[in-house]
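Still learning. Any example?
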Amino acid sequence: MANQDDSFIREVNEEIRSEQMQAVWKRFGRLFIALAILVVIATAGKVAYDYWRERTASQSGDQFLAALTLAKDGKNDEALAALSALEKDGSGAYPVLARMRAATLQAQKGDTAAAIAAFDAIGKDNSIAPALRDAARVRGGYLMIDTASYDQVVAAMSGLTDGAQALRHSAREVLGLSAYKAGDTAKAKEWFDQIAADKQAQPNIANRARIMLDLIASGAKS
């Protein structure tokens, strides 16, 4: 008898749950379907976007390599045209890389002023990642050594020589070379000493700093 009662109670509970589910479905069924469709659409959209981004990035990479090949072959004007197109239509980091490479080509062609201006513009573009902006500033700084005063180079390298900056060694080298060219060997020695004393300085930069320190020392003795 007890078993029959339990069975009856279960059937009643199942019936109640069934009626409740039907009521809920009648009220919210369309909403559930709409949400499910939105999830499917969002998922498909993300997959499509990832595919598009990967494909366009790959295409931009191919265009960048093609431009580098043109430059390597000495076809600088064609390379600049290809890089200019990539700046406008490329994706990912390639437009910025194209700008930097184009500035380098301008320097190689002898248009140092245009190259410096291009690197300066990249360094001031807040839409670009800080690391790339700093790299552009340092690259422009090296070009300024032969064309700008020491004070101008100091202004261009402002903030890059601090101890936390990743490119501090290069920035210090730029300032040391600029000071040496200006005839201020005392200031040049200060910058090269900072490089030589920094254990985190890249070996090639540290070696050049020691060479310059030896050159300054020999000049002071003569």
Q: What stands out?
A: The mean pLDDT is 80. The domain at 42-144 is CATH 1.25.40 (Serine Threonine Protein Phosphatase 5, Tetratricopeptide repeat). Residues 60 and 94 are 6 Å apart (CA to CA). The chain has nine helices and no strands.
